[in-house]
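Long-time lurker, first post.

We've been arguing in lab meeting about whether NAP would sit comfortably in this protein at all. Half the group thinks yes, half thinks no, and nobody has a model to point at. So I'm putting the question to the forum: if I give you the sequence and the SMILES, can you give me back a predicted structure of the complex? Inputs are below. Any interpretation is welcome too.
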Amino acid sequence: MKRALICGVSGQDGAYLARLLLQKGYEVWGTSRDAEAASFSNLKKLGILDQVRRLSMVMTDFRSVLQAVVQADPDEVYNLAGQSSVGLSFAQPVETLQSHALGTLNLLEVVRFLKKPIRIYNASSGECFGDTGDVPANERTPFRPRSPYGVAKAAAHWEVVNYREAYGLFACNGILFNHESPLRQRRFVTRKIANGVAAIVRGEAKELVLGDLSVQRDWGWAEEYVQAMWLMLQQDDPDDYVVATGETYSLQDFVAEAFRYVGLDWKDYVRTDPSLYRPSDIRTSRADPSYAMRKLGWRAKLKMHDVVRRLV
Ligand SMILES: NC(=O)c1ccc[n+]([C@@H]2O[C@H](COP(=O)([O-])OP(=O)(O)OC[C@H]3O[C@@H](n4cnc5c(N)ncnc54)[C@H](OP(=O)(O)O)[C@@H]3O)[C@@H](O)[C@H]2O)c1
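Top reply:
Settle the argument with this. Predicted structure of the protein with NAP, as tokens:
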């Protein structure tokens, strides 16, 4: 039986990945910074809490990472832990940088130190590219991040490439663009929109206040994206892959679709507040996932309109 360790199993992707790996017959271990105190509500929602062996692990503490990896003794490690909010990264730049850059480095060092053939998946991000303009980003597009989060993810990304080239580790970066689900934290704008529309329909709210509606993103569905993570570690050779739908829409398109779905006109309910704008933001985020499609046989079936309908 294969063993997998998911760092950050309490999060959106961690929970869906845990379910996928259990379905594939893996023994699944998962970490939280404090596994005693964590509620693991996402694992509970998926009905898999009892099937996941849970450990406490802090990515920035080398000893803690070493102990967790030794205890779980995994064939595959999925690094999904770290401060994951772009907005929060402006308020907590050091925590964001350390959790991703130092955390990923610790994991790579532990695997190198143990000299075991452990395969590593690292959660890189489309945020590394920054503003792509009209040219879709692929695996060879240079990074120009626009947030402390993007900078942190870019650092971790290149650590993975460096350990692969320098020490021959089987380590992959999944350069995932936005992916959503009901398990995503409520702070993220897609959940905020879905919850806001639901509250308006129930008569509990009169308006929805949002930031810049003109930003353009590529939105997919999280359950599909964790399949790409697993596929990366089943290849003969390690590599990096852009994972996205390949379709970009404005946030206004997303909002309009959410209100249209419940028979309302968004213009009657949405107010924008410049105080919610980020100090610097990505205007357009465009992705070219053709390498993942070709090499992994992976393709996003659910696009922005499907994502909206499943969330609202
Ligand atoms: N969802 C997306 O659209 C997307 C796109 C590209 C990349 N990513 C990246 O993919 C990974 C998984 O995403 P997700 O959406 O599942 O995120 P998530 O739901 O926020 O989960 C991240 C996990 O990391 C842990 N964590 C949170 N803050 C931390 C900190 N400061 N230091 C260390 N650990 C911390 C949390 O576990 P505990 O609180 O239990 O310790 C949490 O369960 C993240 O690295 C994220 O940045 C996500």
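For your lab meeting: The mean pLDDT is 97. The chain has two domains: 3-179+219-243, 185-217+248-280+302-311. Whichever side wins, do check it experimentally.
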